Automatic annotation (TrEMBL):
Keyword Transmembrane helix: yes
Predominant cellular place of this UniProt entry's protein: membrane
Membrane topology classification: Multi-pass membrane protein
Protein name in the entry: EmrB/QacA subfamily drug resistance transporter
Subcellular location: Cell membrane
Major facilitator superfamily (MFS) profile domain segment(s): 15-479
Pfam families: MFS_1
Segments passing through the bilayer: 12-32, 52-69, 81-100, 106-131, 143-162, 168-189, 201-221, 227-250, 271-294, 300-324, 336-354, 360-379, 451-471
Keywords in alphabetical order: Cell membrane, Membrane, Transmembrane, Transmembrane helix, Transport
Length: 497
């Protein structure tokens, strides 16, 4: 068995910097493109139907290939896959920036999603392997969580600035130098434990998992554009569920499964995946609705709308690094996760109470409360996502937390947008219809947003309940009993099943 590479303390933190840069690139991509999309559509002359696919192509490839990406990292080495994925992402981004038509842009987006599916679990796995001491591990996951959850808001700002003052193509080109910095820095600073788990790749599992996840992600995308009762939507959901059910059956029978079912059966890991997925439903939907609120109701420019997300971005970062990370090496994960999610729920209630004339201070306070809560909660959730997992499976366990975010995000955008749109339409029916004065139309929009925020609150409260019931990992001072030394999380003893 290979000897673990001894990475000096200072070099581990430099490695974390470059790993976080890679994660920032993945998160930035979606947010930047959302702001740049209207300009890209105008420049390349594609239809509204094609516009949706520019977003969906990335999500389908990313969500569908995440489990495969995690397993490939386990088999070939996380550093090797990490560097390969960074290079591939840079090339795909350059292709997108040079796109001469919508077909070329769609290919670039799908390639970005595929390389992101390799990159995301490799990054999380490398952190698990580099930081094994509880206090350092807590800080490392705090930094990573802050980058992950604040990157979306930063991307909105960057997208607005690049689109408004340069060109939509720079929303893609900007990712190339970020990837190059990550590659150059990671070559000398990032190390894995040298192990390779060259089990035969479970091809049936690959196909069933990828197609099943694609079915679910596409179903939620179709629901947003075609409605929940459309044949395409229902068919996608049914196909996705059946394929994933078949995947579970296959995994229980094959010798070298893509996803060992033991990864899902441990209660702390399962709670991390489920609670993060539920919370992300709220977060992604909230970002979308706030963006519309800033630009449609408030009439702010794309740059101003992006800057308006800063209170949330800053407090998310502080919640992860100063609250979650500081508490994580002192107390057990459960109270941090439950408390963080409940604080976020309170912030969503404040958002639901906003109206068209609310001041920026009121908006900023609501954003800040949501941000600090989710920042604190996600840090221990990401840490226990690899709790007690065998070194051979750390990549696929890391991929599961990314999968929960991707699926949760797809649900959130479709569900909350549908609820907001339906509630707005119902309000207008009884208040003058589409011919109503502007202030009535704004009231209708706020009515729709409020309905969606109340629903978002329910999802975050559900995440708190899941954490309260399922998480039983111990405080850092408790000695780990079953976790591998390579992947020991923030001091957790063997849980009672």
């Amino acid at each position: 068995m290979p000897t673990r590479h001894k990475t000096p303390n200072s070099q581990r933190w430099r490695a974390l910097f470059f790993i976080s840069i890679a994660q920032l690139m993945v998160v930035l991509d979606g947010a930047v493109m959302n702001i740049a999309l209207p300009s890209a559509q105008q420049a390349l002359h594609f239809t509204d139907g094609s516009r949706q696919w520019v977003v969906t192509a990335y999500g389908l490839a990313f969500g569908g290939l995440l489990l495969v990406g995690g397993r490939v990292g386990d088999m070939l080495g996380r550093k090797r896959v990490f560097l390969f994925a960074l290079a591939g992402f840079a090339i795909a981004s350059a292709i997108g920036g040079l796109a001469a038509n919508v077909e070329m842009l769609l290919v670039a987006r799908a390639l970005q999603g595929a390389f992101a599916a390799l990159l995301a679990p490799a990054a999380l796995s490398l952190i698990s392997l580099l930081f094994t001491e509880p206090r350092e591990r807590a800080k490392a996951f705090g930094v990573f969580a802050a980058v992950s959850i604040a990157g979306g808001a930063v991307g909105l700002i960057a997208g607005g600035l690049l689109t408004q003052y340069l060109n939509w193509r720079f929303a893609m080109f900007i990712l190339v130098p970020i990837a190059i910095i990550g590659i150059v820095g990671a070559i000398s600073t990032v190390h894995d434990n040298g192990e390779r788990h060259r089990a035969r790749l479970d091809i049936p599992g690959v196909l069933l998992a990828s197609l099943g996840l694609v079915g679910l992600v596409y179903g939620f995308s179709a629901a947003e554009s075609h409605g929940w009762s459309a044949a395409t939507t229902i068919g996608s959901f049914v196909a996705g569920v059946l394929l994933l059910a078949a995947f579970v059956v296959v995994q229980s029978r094959v010798k070298a499964p893509l996803l060992p079912l033991g990864v899902l059966s441990e209660r702390n890991r399962a709670a991390a995946y489920l609670s993060v997925g539920l919370a992300i439903v709220s977060m992604f939907g909230m970002f979308l609705l706030l963006s519309y609120y800033f630009q449609q109701v408030k009439g702010w420019s794309p740059v101003m709308a992006g800057l308006a997300f800063m209170p949330m971005a800053v407090l998310q970062a502080l919640g992860a690094t100063q609250v979650g990370a500081r508490l994580a090496h002192r107390i057990a994960p459960r109270p941090i996760m439950v408390g963080g999610y409940l604080v976020s729920a309170a912030g969503l209630v404040l958002l639901a109470l906003l109206d068209a004339d609310s001041s920026f201070l009121e908006i900023a306070v609501a954003e800040a409360v949501v941000g600090i809560g989710v920042g604190a909660a996600f840090m221990p959730a990401m840490s226990i996502s690899t709790h007690g997992v065998a070194p051979a499976d750390v990549g696929v366990a890391s991929a599961m937390i990314s999968s929960s975010q991707q699926v949760g995000g797809s649900i959130g955008v479709a569900l909350l947008n549908t609820v907001a749109t339906g509630s707005t339409a119902s309000y207008l029916v009884t208040h003058g219809g589409t011919a109503a004065p502007v202030h009535v139309q704004n009231q209708a929009l706020m009515h729709g947003y409020a309905a969606a925020y109340w629903l978002a609150t329910i999802f975050v409260v559900a995440a708190a309940l899941v954490s309260a019931i399922m998480v039983n990992a111990g405080a850092p001072e408790s000695p780990p009993a079953t976790a591998s030394e390579d992947v020991a999380p923030v001091g957790v003893p063997a849980p009672a099943h």
